[in-house]
Amino acid sequence: MSSPAIGRVDRRKARTRAALIAAGQRILADRGTTEVAVQDITDEAGVGLGSFYNHFTTKSELFEAAVFDLLDAFAAGIDAARADVQDPAELVAIGIRSTCRLAATRPAVARVLVLTGPEFLVADRGLAPLASRDLRQGLASGRFTLARPALALAVVGGSVLAFLQMRLTADGSGSVTDADADLLAATLLTTLGLPAAEAAEIAHRPLPVLDPPPGPTPQGEPS
Amino acid sequence: MSSPAIGRVDRRKARTRAALIAAGQRILADRGTTEVAVQDITDEAGVGLGSFYNHFTTKSELFEAAVFDLLDAFAAGIDAARADVQDPAELVAIGIRSTCRLAATRPAVARVLVLTGPEFLVADRGLAPLASRDLRQGLASGRFTLARPALALAVVGGSVLAFLQMRLTADGSGSVTDADADLLAATLLTTLGLPAAEAAEIAHRPLPVLDPPPGPTPQGEPS
Question: Helices B149-169 & B178-192, crossing angle to 10 degrees?
Fold first, then answer.
């Protein structure tokens, strides 16, 4: 057991780390770049410059932690919202539709995802493990017929990432919408092996409500 | 008409710009980051620090030019190699298979593509305009049935990007190969609306040989 004094130190360290990570998330979301000085991060976090190096070796390490903390929490939220769903096809559809909606419901989180790029698809944290599990389950149950899990993940994950990028940069004329997100889910279910009519029906079921995803809420954005 | 003296100045300016862009391409490919000092770029280019600002306002501007110069040239190479192909389905298949092979034939270019991330899918230069044209042609001719060009581009472009990322980070155990690139092309053609057997046949035709793509050739990599 640790003494109360140690406990206080640990709690303070944890608070400093959390403040740095939250600062990293806000910087990514607001400025869309990791090209900032360490001092900018500690200023944003309201902590001393030196304390940065008690927690992180490099800026990249901080930003990676900032991104994956956000994505872990978002993935946990999707998982909780789908607790009553058994069908792997519907699990995948909810994952696709919920993630595509991030661009509208929580653009800051969507921007972080797009900025991280395809790297998050090969990570062992965040959304990739959730997507991999869903896809393998669908394959094992015979629901999906695309026999290479890596390709299934590339198609599903890459398409969602590209969709988010399009939605964030749409100028209105060629913009993609929630309806397109559902159409994308239906399309990807047919790619995985479902008949088109069944895929469309599953991709248009009522979508479970997610808890508001965590993460930065820039000015003017509903929290 | 410009005088010979002006011509010499213009040629020198063009050489400096080209040297800076080539330096940016090598830095992206070798170091995998844009987080370098302007001085690093001018040192790599063998030009004076001050000349950077005669050509670019920011590092981002230089790196954007470096990426799109590379992708424009690669897209032109694909287009030239497919000059005798009429069928939009085969045009798309060649584009997918050639781009996926970049990870093996020219990893430096593939790394630049992945580092740029989904942003290149919404650009008006590089591979996106080529892919958009192919997809719209296939739709207009009735060859493809996925009726939203934006979704078709998200699925095709996003999948290829994710495939490249997987191939570049594969540790051997779950690695994706040229055969998977062809399977991906076949899968995506069925997503666009082709019957599975026809898609598979088209995605396994002999692939036209591309001129070696331009761009950085890191040490030890065949040029």
Answer: 170
Closest listed residue to residue B74, CA positions, set B103, B31, B45: B103
Show residues of chain A in contact with B155, CB under 8 Å. 155, 158-159, 162, 184, 187-188, 191
| CATH annotation of B66-217 | 1.10.357.10
In this prediction, residue A223 carries a pLDDT of: 39
What is the token pair recorded at A35? 């090209």
Give the pLDDT band of residue B218 (cuts 50, 70, 90): very low
B64: left (phi over 0), alpha (psi -120 to 50) or beta: alpha
Cα(A102)–Cα(A115) distance, integer angstroms? 14
Residues 6+ apart with CB under 8 A from B201: none
Smallest Cβ–Cβ distance between B159 and the set A148, A158, A174 belongs to A158
Topology, domain A66-212: Tetracycline Repressor; domain 2 (1.10.357)
Collapsing DSSP to helix, strand or coil, A145 comes out as coil
SS3 sequence of A13-82: HHHHHHHHHHHHHHHHHHHCCCCCCHHHHHHHHCCCHHHHHHHCCCHHHHHHHHHHHHHHHHHHHHHHHC
Q: A18 pLDDT exceeds 90?
A: yes
DSSP B212: P
When computed from its CA atoms, the radius of gyration of chain B, rounded to whole angstroms, is 19
Tokens at A120, concatenated: 């998050």
Searching chain A, which residue's CA lies closest to the CA of residue B195?
Answer: A191
CATH number given to B1-56: 1.10.10.60
Is the ipTM reported for this complex over the cut 0.90?
no
Percentage of chain A exceeding pLDDT 70: 90
Mapped onto helix, strand or coil, the DSSP state of residue B70 is helix
Percent of chain B with pLDDT over 70: 90
Contact A114 B115 (CB under 8 A): no
Structure tokens belonging to residue B74: 């690669």
Measured distance CA(B120)–CA(B68) in Å, rounded: 8
